[in-house]
Amino acid sequence: MTDTTPGGLENLLSEDRRFPPSSEFAAQANVHRDAYAWADADRPAFWAEQARDLLDWTTPFHEVLDWSGAPVARWFADGRLNAAYNAVDRHVEAGRGDRVALHFEGEGGDTRTITYADLQREVSKAANALAALGVETGDRVAIYLPLIPEAVFTMLACARIGAPHSVVFGGFSAEALYSRIVDAEAKLVVTADGGFRRGAASALKPAVDEALAKGESPVEHVLVVRRTGQDVAWTEGRDVWWSDTVDTASDEHTPVAVDAEHPLFILYTSGTTGKPKGIFHTTGGYLTQAAYTHKAVFDLKAETDVYWCTADIGWITGHTYVVYGPLVNGATQVIYEGTPDTPHRGRWWEIIEKYKVSILYTAPTAIRTCMKWGEEIPSKFDLSSLRVLGSVGEPINPEAWVWYRRVIGGDRTPIVDTWWQTETGAIMISPLPGVTTTKPGSAQVPLPGIAATVVDDDAHPVPDGSGGYLVVTEPWPSMLRGIWGDQERYADTYWSRFKDLYFAGDGAKKDDDGDIWLLGRVDDVMNVSGHRLSTTEIESALVSHPWVAEAAVVGATDETTGQAVVAFVILRGDAGGGEQSADEVQTTLRNHVAKEIGPIAKPRQILVVAELPKTRSGKIMRRLLRDVAEHRQVGDATTLADASVMDLIAQGLSAPG
Ligand code: 6R9
């Protein structure tokens, strides 16, 4: 990563477009430049002030940070609070019960408007039902639901009782669900008959039945929401309908105050190999940073903004920026069940026009997909309500960033490229929209109160202009408190690579201003003839060509060069890319990469594909592409959002031409 020879990282760093905030935006922004100095002067004091300011505590805290048990932090540990009370009840008590909390848009066009007062009743009913099913403070609950209001009600009902939830992606297999249920020893599973995806009802309950038939399980009950009306198999005594238990329960429930360090949730992330890691977060510190970052990074004005984060609740972005951050801040938000192209490719933009969404938070993969579909689609809708755009999940290529700002943001909106992880719980590195002069493709600066840098192999901070590994150098409130049931693995995975530094697993580079550019996971770094190349770098070069909508690059074993660059590209329908022969595409794009980065970075092979394999959170599964590139049997594809994509790629490669 420290290599700056040809093929190094010069391409991204030569990105010299700059976008300062407008003076109008800067003047009205929630957070100003002085926040950095204030936080630097006394980091724990800064967070303590946020915790007092943004949350209501039933028992105020006096201790701020206890790092004596490092690497497990304790924040605000002698305080007590309830997460659901903070997300719901206090807004109603303050006279804001009529404010819309959720504008739910079903894929088929059904809608529900849920105010904070409604939310209080729904969450209370669900909490009473959970308690009646035997769930007590400290018990774990698995949630396997589509993105429907009941998913939010259930998460908050768990929080209300102090029962940590473990949300499992609706797209995950029965096997994945079973291992997560067993690992967390969940007593209850909350699911639905099914959900709507791509215009059809897709079943969920059968996967729960299959999971629970796999062996011994701690599950006592399965609570089932009726969403699609599909037939479901039923196990008497174990399965109960939401309509029979929750809808009939009392809508009054007293939230259980818990210690600040009481676990709020477990969320499994797929490690590169082996058993998934149950990342667990606690209550006080997590909520503090969720609320602060949501307000600071998106400049949220709760009275007037309409916020929309397109993430599924099955990943961390859905936890922090659909459920906890926005609701603790009393925001009005949109949640949408379906896919962006159902029933047509303008669905997202139609939703933005309909609800006058002012803040949009989505992933680079979605932006690149929209680029591929062509800008005439969003251009048909009125997107003038938008005032802040966010990106998360992967490095965003400069071209995609610029397209996002121009086509979706009307050349007007600040873009916040937010770097963080399931483990960090909340945003760590991001521009502040009223402060930072943004650079397309860079997450830029640690937020006020966050200390992160880039180090070399020996843990020394690299000078500006060099690359290395991203680390966090001081504890932060929403940091993971460990891996559920395996604290040794926690220390090994994150704290053993560099002494006393949190190792994020991402490669990064500092530019000449000291701004941080994320370069992808360190395992995505290739070594071609001794030159270190980042996948992100080459992908960005490819996407900067007008024919290319999306690109994924992998390093395939090569007899002569050690590794060789193999690129998979999706061509843009609207830019002439579709009309070229395969040979012409190869030659043109190889030369383009050579020109942008250097001949060393030229892909050995460029394969045109219709889709790329992605997880439901939008991350490209390069491991599977590497299998294709190295002519191996394709490995475990169970966490793909759409498992048929690998078949399509294989077919496309064997087809003539
Ligand atoms: C929130 C989330 C974490 C990994 C992380 C990094 C990548 C996320 C990014 C980004 C570059 C950004 N990542 N945001 N890379 N720029 N703005 O995605 O959590 O699913 O745990 O993934 O995602 O590689 O290490 P999670």
Straight-line N-to-C gap: 37 Å
Global morphology? globular
Average pLDDT confidence is 91
Q: Which structural class fits the helix and strand makeup?
A: alpha/beta
Strand content: 15-25%
| Count of DSSP strands | 30
Kindly state the percentage of residues in helix. Answer: 25-40%
Largest sheet: 8 strands, mixed
Strands ordered across the widest β-sheet:
12-11-8-6-7-14-15-23
* Heteromolecules bound: ligand 6R9
List the total number of helices. Answer: 21
The value of Rg in angstroms is 24 Å
| Low-confidence runs of at least 5 consecutive residues | 1-8
Molecular structure report:
The chain is α/β, with parallel strands linked by helices. Helices cover 32% and strands 22% of the residues. It is built from 21 helices and 30 strands. The strands form eight sheets. Strands 12-11-8-6-7-14-15-23 form an eight-stranded mixed β-sheet, with helices on both faces. It has a seven-stranded mixed β-sheet with strand order 5-4-17-16-18-19-20, with helices on both faces. Helix 4 crosses helix 11 and helix 6 crosses helix 7. Bound molecules: ligand 6R9. InterPro entries: Ac_CoA_lig, ACAS_N, AMP-bd_C, AMP-bd_C_sf, AMP-binding_CS, AMP-dep_synth/lig_dom, ANL_N_sf. This is Acetyl-coenzyme A synthetase. Its cofactor is Mg(2+). Its EC number is 6.2.1.1.
